[in-house]
Amino acid sequence: MIAYYLKYIAFIICFLLLVTHSSLGQIPILERNISVRFNNDRITEVLDVIADEGGFNFSYNSNLIDGDRRIDLAVTNRPVRDVLKQIFGTSISYKVRGQYIILQKNLTENQNLHFILSGYIVAPEEGIKLPDASIYEKNSLASAISNQYGFYKIKLSTKKFPIRLSISKPGYERQVVWVKNAQNDYLNIELIAEKKEIVYETPFEDNSIEQMEAFKRRHQYIEPIPVFKDNRPPFVDAAGDESFHPVFVSTDSLAYRTDWEKFKNEVSKFFVRRSQRINAFNINDTLNQKLQVSLLPFLGTNKLLSGSIINDFSVNILMGYSGGVRKLEIGGLLNGVHHDVEGVQMAGLGNIIGGELRGLQVSSLLNITGNLGRGLQLSSGINVVANRANGWQVGLINFAQNVDKKGKQIGLLNISETTESTPFGLLSFVSSSDGYKRLELTVDENETGSVTFKTGVRKFYNILTIGYNFLRTRELFSAGYGIGRAYEMNHGWMLNTDLVANVMVEYDAFNPNVGTLLKFDVSFEKQIAKNAAITFGPSLKALFIDRYNVSTWQSKPFSRMPTYTPLFATDHSTFWLGFQMGLRIRSK
After folding, report:
1. pLDDT tens readout for residues 396-435
2. d(Cα 232, Cα 223) in Å, to the nearest integer?
3. Cα dihedral 70, 71, 76, 79 sign
4. Rounded distance, CA 516 to CA 394, Å?
5. Are the CB atoms for 310 and 322 separated by under 8 Å?
6. How far apart are CA 579 and CA 354, in angstroms?
């Protein structure tokens, strides 16, 4: 019986050992926390204990270490990296291969030019190590990002002592540390969480029960939604390396992010290295350069701080990424700017600005900006303003979320959510109540029925119409385009003036007869329901027939149009005064 239970106990122990080994394997060797205590122990014995405690092995040349050396050491819950640093200092370097830490002699051939500073970024108040913190030096543009365990490693020049390092991470106070010499090559840096000032309103002037209860209701505790700079969550790198694509924290609270922020994230993931995006996200410090030159977004003179630096002049041979531009940016294919552009931005294919454009943006295919100040987007393709446009958009297709009074859209197709100005184009769509939209079914003296759609704003809208008459001896079809203007009147009345050009096609026994009908309609609209109105009014019309076909007609084309005596008529033109009336479906 005892042997039976021992089997299960042995199975459980093996299972626990396997789980423990798996969990250790998920944490990089140098980041595994160990607790050890040594008192005058030989260095070789010390390394054996550390290896057993951390679940790995050491590999080194016996000539590299003085085996008779004895040390005293006591550490509690510290990373292996820290323990090795205390034992060897700068004399030994190490690298990880599988489950081995390989000890090597520290190379000093370039020590007079550069040295490596490393350590951890910690938040002492919270007792945690901080991932994705930015460590940078303004003058040399050297930078590093702490990994998911809070460890950083940055290469610095020995010719710049003393070196001023800045450390930034959203939600924490920016820290500045000074490195005075190359002997200080291991430095743990503490960041203090920002203190949020809480403002309390005076609850009430008297002690009435009603005011006390109202105060309680207003101040019921609500779980806060995390707010990040630029509405973006913190980066979490599942692999713990400089991977090109980050892994974002997946929580339901991120649903509040705007489509514009999502778009910027997706574009930046495709074009920009992870380190650049984290630095641009972290650093609020003012970094400026006169000129930057880049081949690709991650290959340029501004290195991995490119998304945090504002340049006077920016030259991108193929594609580039910068924090901002003050005067001029030129790109062979694509320009990307994290914040604002003042001056001129030109690219062969496209320009993307995360902040505001105040100047000129020119491309052959695509211009995108968060906001458009007093300036111009010019493209033979598409212009996009994600938020507010206070300047002009001129292109094939123009889109702006909100167009201010001084803004203007001129293009084949104009789209906006709201507008305070008048768009000009073949078609213009305004989604909100600022827009003018009508779908109407009308009849007149020529056609049994016409369907017309009007879109734009009241001061200037576009008209698309088709009509048909199957009651005539010769069936008649028409399609047209026009422009118009609406005038507000009192008590649910509105006046419209429309100018429309129609192509008329009449079917006879031989070939179709084709003509052009010009109409100037003056119509009155009376609202009869929330989204419905009736319309009626006079229409001045002119029909022009192709002169080339006059001699071949067996009978006069478009006969009995109109059915009454016109104002003026020839063999190839007719002018008359008609009417139109119908039902309109109005926008809200």
Report:
1. 999 999 999 999 999 999 999 999 999 999 999 998 878 9
2. 19
3. negative
4. 31
5. yes
6. 52
Structure tokens at 65: 């270490």
Q: Residue holding tokens 């630029």? A: 230
What pLDDT is attached to residue 250?
37
d(CA 538, CA 495): 12
Q: What DSSP element (H or E) covers 43?
A: helix 43-54
What Rg value do the Cα atoms of the chain yield, rounded? 37
Contact between residue 491 and residue 502 where contact means Cβ atoms under 8 Å apart? no
Map residue 110 onto helix, strand or coil: coil
**Helix, strand, or coil here: 61?**
coil
| 80-88 and 43-54 helices, crossing angle to 10° | 170
**CB-side neighbour CA atoms (13 Å) of 86:** 17
What backbone phi and psi angles, to 5 degrees, belong to 431?
-75, -40
What beta strand segments (E) does 420-492 contain?
424-430, 436-444, 449-457, 460-469, 476-488
Q: Which three-class secondary structure state does DSSP give residue 86?
A: helix
Q: Report the alpha-carbon distance of residue 110 to residue 93 in Å, rounded.
A: 14
Both tokens of 507, joined, read 């079917």
Of 316, 317, 308, 315, whose CA–CA distance to 288 is shortest?
A: 308
Taking the C-alpha atoms of residue 498 and residue 509, their distance in angstroms, rounded to an integer, is 34
Structure tokens that stand for 559 in this block? 């006969």
pLDDT, one tens digit per residue, over 515-532 is: 899 999 999 999 988 889
Q: What is the pLDDT of residue 21?
A: 46
Surface-to-core class of residue 293, CB atoms within 10 Å of its CB (0-12 exposed, 13-18 middle, 19+ buried): middle
Neighbour tally for 421: CB within 10 Å: 20
| Per-residue pLDDT tens over the stretch 336-363 | 999 999 999 999 999 999 999 999 999 9
Burial class (CB in 10 A: 0-12, 13-18, 19+), 345: buried
Q: Which two three-digit tokens encode residue 81?
A: 């990296």
The DSSP symbol for 265 reads H
Residue 275 — very low, low, confident or very high, per pLDDT cuts 50/70/90?
Answer: confident
Could you read off the pLDDT of 37-81 as tens digits, one per residue? 888 888 888 888 888 888 888 888 877 887 778 888 888 888 888
Residue 585 has, within 13 A of its CA and on its CB side, a CA count of 6
- 321 sits in which H/E element: strand 319-322
CB 118 within 8 A of CB 151: yes
Tell whether the model's pLDDT for residue 240 goes beyond 90: no
Q: How many residues are given for the chain?
A: 588
In 3D space, the residue among 453, 448, 455, 360 whose CA is nearest the CA of residue 415 turns out to be 455
Neighbouring CB atoms inside 10 A of 360's CB total 16
